[in-house]
């Protein structure tokens, strides 16, 4: 198999959100953002008991029969179930799609809310309450609590970029965020990069930041220098109760490449693995243009301004299967 027999663990900084010395935390975070774009966040305020409950409920969903899960197949708003192989993150190197199944949960907007017609907003595509009692309530609570953690991290990122602490927490940025919770289940396939088989192909995340909770099964790997030949991959060790946080492409763009979004992938080792990703993005109408502290006469903006909505829509379209294939399968 193509994977190294002895894992090479990446030494990631650990940010303690309860640390009263904010400067120390910001310095640690800045160091991580300049180095790998990955770090741990601990003492974030979500109890271990509740984290365990969310993982237990996630397993309940993925344990349902396939036809039951397909009743919540993702819709055009990216809500609901994504089957195994639905997502193809690294088409140049992958023979098939990712050997994982997932479930998207976004910011809940009722049918009567004018925003529900916009991409990435709207009602969620929930399993029936009689199939999974209490499931919806657990996931909604976790969605809300993780948003608070994400906002706390965004404040530190703002400080690390010499911006006002509340720069990202303004109404037009994180006031109406596209916050997407994604439950993930990697079935017990063994990945083999030499054959193009991956749990999740190598990719960078699209948005602002991602917060990832994992079980204790290894699988996540990062590559700090995507242009190196050959690429060097390091394992990210699971840390109980922590979020593994990484920066997305939108923040790299926003910061004029001061901070970087890092290539990562998941290799299956034959064990089932569960993780929960929380993608925090700005509101749809946010204009992403070079931050004032990240440009100068000698370092002009590298990218033109772009609306968050246009950027996100294109990135999702590029990586997911056309929904029509499922309609054909069910016909």
UniProtKB/TrEMBL annotation:
Keyword field contains Transit peptide: no
Per its UniProt entry, which superkingdom is the organism in?
A: Eukaryota
Q: The Fe2OG dioxygenase domain covers which part of the protein? A: 177-282
Tell me the PROSITE patterns matching this sequence: FE2OG_OXY
Q: List UniProt keywords, sorted A-Z.
A: Iron, Metal-binding, Oxidoreductase
Q: Which GO terms describe its molecular function?
A: dioxygenase activity; metal ion binding
Transcription regulation is among the record's keywords:
no
| Pfam families noted in UniProt | 2OG-FeII_Oxy, DIOX_N
Family that this chain belongs to: Belongs to the iron/ascorbate-dependent oxidoreductase family.
What is the protein's given name?
Answer: Fe2OG dioxygenase domain-containing protein
């Amino acid at each position: 198999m193509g994977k190294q027999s002895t894992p090479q663990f990446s030494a990631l900084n650990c940010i303690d959100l309860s640390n009263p010395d904010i400067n120390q935390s910001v310095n640690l975070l800045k160091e991580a953002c300049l180095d790998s774009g990955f770090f741990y966040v601990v003492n974030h305020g979500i109890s271990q008991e509740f984290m365990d409950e969310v993982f237990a409920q996630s397993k309940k969903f993925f344990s349902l029969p396939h036809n039951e899960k397909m009743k919540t197949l993702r819709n055009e708003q990216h809500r609901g179930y994504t089957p195994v192989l639905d997502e193809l993150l690294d088409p140049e190197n992958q023979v098939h799609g990712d050997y994982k199944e997932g479930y998207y949960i976004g910011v809940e907007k009722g049918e009567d809310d004018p925003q529900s017609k916009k991409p990435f907003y709207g009602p969620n595509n929930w399993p029936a309450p009689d199939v999974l009692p209490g499931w919806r309530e657990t996931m909604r609570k976790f969605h809300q609590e993780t948003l608070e953690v994400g906002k706390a991290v965004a404040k530190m990122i703002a400080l690390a970029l010499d911006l006002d602490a509340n720069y990202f927490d303004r109404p037009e940025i994180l006031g109406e965020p596209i916050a997407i919770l994604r439950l993930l289940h990697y079935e017990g396939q063994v990945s083999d990069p030499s054959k193009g088989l991956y749990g999740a192909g190598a990719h960078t995340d699209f948005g602002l930041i991602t917060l990832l909770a994992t079980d204790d099964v290894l699988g996540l790997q990062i590559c700090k220098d995507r242009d190196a030949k050959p690429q060097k991959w390091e394992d990210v060790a699971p840390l109980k109760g922590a979020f593994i946080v990484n920066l997305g492409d939108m923040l790299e763009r926003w910061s004029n490449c001061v901070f970087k979004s890092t290539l990562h992938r998941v290799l299956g080792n034959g064990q089932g693995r569960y993780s929960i990703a929380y993608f925090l993005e700005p509101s749809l109408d946010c204009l992403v243009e070079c931050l004032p502290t990240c440009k100068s006469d000698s370092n002009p903006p590298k990218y033109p301004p772009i609306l968050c909505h246009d950027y996100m829509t294109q990135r999702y379209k590029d990586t997911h299967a056309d929904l029509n294939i499922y309609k054909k399968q069910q016909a």
